[in-house]
Amino acid sequence: MSVDPGPAAGLDEIVGSIGPKVRELRAQRNLSLQQLAVRADVSAAAIHKVERGDMVPTITTLLKLASALGRPVGHFIDDAGPRYPVAVHTRARDVRSGAPFTGPANQFVLDGTVTVTEPGAGGSAEPSRAGAGEELVYVLDGTLEFEVAGEPYRLARHESLHYRTEHPRRWTNPGAKPARAIWVSTGS
Amino acid sequence: MSVDPGPAAGLDEIVGSIGPKVRELRAQRNLSLQQLAVRADVSAAAIHKVERGDMVPTITTLLKLASALGRPVGHFIDDAGPRYPVAVHTRARDVRSGAPFTGPANQFVLDGTVTVTEPGAGGSAEPSRAGAGEELVYVLDGTLEFEVAGEPYRLARHESLHYRTEHPRRWTNPGAKPARAIWVSTGS
DNA sequence: ACAGATCCTTTACTATACTAAATACGCCTG
DNA sequence: CAGGCGTATTTAGTATAGTAAAGGATCTGT
After folding, report:
1. pLDDT confidence of B125, banded at 50, 70, 90?
2. Residue A125, pLDDT score
3. I need a labelling partner for A121 at 20 to 30 A (CA). Which of A41, A71, B2, B87 fits?
4. Nearest-CB residue to B74 (from A79, A101, A108)
């Protein structure tokens, strides 16, 4: 029943890894401590201590640094939830419409499904509250019509649409034959 | 030249949103403050203040809480890099081998490409240092052979493979005709 | 060799995250 | 209405994250 809830063990490694990452990115951009300090609105001394591992930043300061370095905070934290093995292989006979062909949701962020939408059929989705996800649709066969945040899109065979799930969206199959598409999404 | 480097504006909203999320998850699990306190090794008072927004936690304490609640820290931060508009539509004529059909990398986390691998050809990739990414391969036509972290996989038409990019990997097309596949990956 | 930059580091101080303990608010049960 | 029990909140104190300013190293150019 109880799956290992997450890191907790490798906490020190995670925290210890963030300093070097900051330093590396700063070097990559040829920024001095003070330059980064003004960009991030964090004192140079604080950045220095974080880089050296002498200090553990608060969320706000890490957000400031991540923003100034053009990276999401996830890049520094490497939480990634539980650690799991290797790869998940889904065989052709297991690729059914509506069933994901990706690994378990708690092991992976990506979720992929091949879906067949019958002529005239469709669906809709509200904005996800978490607000963090994306969706990527690739049409294998047929046609799909989308409306994302009010804007219409018409996808023919071998076309794709990519959007963030914070927008409301609807889709239908306007054609005369079933539409097959790959749906890949991120987020919980 | 200078694209808005990231959040920095919505900083308050981001930090302000983490308290409610903690409270919601705690309620969802029917945990009292003190129960969560012992599980996370954080004082109940601290959790309370974080939930109320009276305090901004450090990375370590957020990691502890996230772990105890069984979520990656990303769930609480919703960084997701810069915020951008709407959806990206890639038309059939623009879907070329090797060219991504997803939105710009700084706007989206997902990166998708249709790749044609000639017979006998292939490639390899080292473990990504960041360690945060995933890759998802879906074979449209032909056959691809993979080796991920030493383990072999053979993908036929309409089969997929899903793995984390922290593992080294190699792939080849063992067949006599070109193999077409969709590659979707996360991370920078 | 001496200014004058520019960078990293250190120091002394302030702000605040965090802890432990006390207080206060239900909600039972007798 | 007591008296407990579990809960959320508050309070006082300590640890540490954060700032501002000084120090010291290294490389310019004149």
Report:
1. confident
2. 83
3. B87
4. A79
pTM here? 0.52
Which chain C nucleotides are covered by protein, judged by CB under 7 A? 6-12, 16-21
Between the ranges A183-187, B82-86, B113-117, where is the mean pLDDT highest?
B113-117
Statement to judge: residues B58 and B103 lie in one domain: no
Distance B50 CA to D3 C1' (A): 33
- Residues B102-118: pLDDT tens digits? 655 444 567 778 889 99
Residue A11 pLDDT level (bands cut at 50, 70, 90): confident
- CATH number where A181 lies: 2.60.120.10
Q: Which residues lie across from A112 on neighbouring strands?
A: A184
Distance from CA of A57 to the nearest CA of B (A): 6
**A87 inside domain:** no
Task: Supply the DSSP symbol for B171.
Answer: E
Is A136 within 8 Å of B112 when comparing Cβ atoms? yes
Alpha-carbon gap, residue A112 to B85, rounded angstroms: 23
Show which of B16, B48, B77 is a domain's final residue.
B77
Identify the domain containing residue A36 by its residue range: 7-77
Write the DSSP symbol of residue B94.
G
